[in-house]
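Here we describe the complex-level prediction in full. Unlike the single-chain runs in Section 2.1, the two entities below were treated as one system.
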Amino acid sequence: MKKTIALATAGILALSLAAFSPPSLGAHDVDHCFRDHEICRQNAMDMEAPWYMVMLYLTACDVALGVCIFKV
Amino acid sequence: MAGKRTWTRAAGAVAAMVLLVVSAFPSDVRRVRARDIHPELRTSREAELGLTAGMLYDREFIYVLDRSDHAVRVYEKNGRFRKTIGRRGQGPGEFNTPSGFSILEGKLYVADSANARIQILTRDGDYLSSLKVPFRPADVAALTRDVIAVSYLQSFSGEKVNMIHGFSSTGVKLWECLEPALTGDSVFDTMVNRFLILPGGPGEFLAVFKSEQAPLRRFAHDGKLIASPAPPRGFPLKGLTLPLPGRKRKLTGFCWHAAFSDGRLFVLSPDRTEEGDLGPGFEVYVFVPGGPLEAVIQLPDHVVRISVDGNRIYAVDADRILRIYQFEGL
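The structure predicted for the assembly as a whole is:
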């Protein structure tokens, strides 16, 4: 169980870094963060993967949104 | 004696379960097996697709919205590749991350998500016009020549916004409907608020949720809710618990994808994976919204998108290959 949680956490962090494109991380605009967040969520929902994977990706989108806002 | 009693109880329990299953699944529902009528597509490079966002059949042609190629792929009804419409960009006839499309009276309406617009093209791909929308459209359904329903994926940056917006063909906002269900858990909320917009009966359209307790909504073309019919008896709603830490929430899996044809709704039910997750399905449940279950069509493969024409189901399988199935008996 601990291994699964650790793997899921590592997966979320890795996906978070990949979820938003590099230019958006440097953009000084909170709106841009939210725009990328919407695209990230749309990508998650169109990925045609089983739903746990979609939820994992959506979590990564939220983490990436937090990172993006923090960087602004 | 105790052993005999245990056997009697076990037999009673099994009988009760069989009775429950039999009574839950209506006896007059037909089970139909569809067959693959173009198996050569399995190895055809032209039938390979990227991440798809939609699939439609209209007047002898199959249209697949390929999100990763930012284009619409057009096939003949035997699966032969015909042409690609659009490419990545911001100009007329170009798309950026398209997320849904619709066909009405020979016109193709594409939700050009990242460009925040709906593009209207001829069915051959010639650009006609576009309308800007004040959000990134998630899906689109052309209801009439003058009314276009556009869905919006609830954002967490601001206030609660209705999820379907009606626009005129010139881009004038006409109405909005369908409040999102929000709990404050963004992942759960996104999963619960995923839906497709499909044409319905005359003067109506449908919102078909992928996972919800009340997964069907019938709306009039002016955005007014007509009814929220329950899934028919015998339809398998599949529970899924959110695996992430925190308060446990349960999703009720209803549909992976769906199509509306000849007054009937064809719902591709998600299938339970070996890991207990819900993935692409192979069973299509057929019913008139609000009516009884008519048939269950079993496909030979797990698929992610479907479109129906008569006794044919066009699909994109889980390996992202175009497939064409035929069934008898509906």
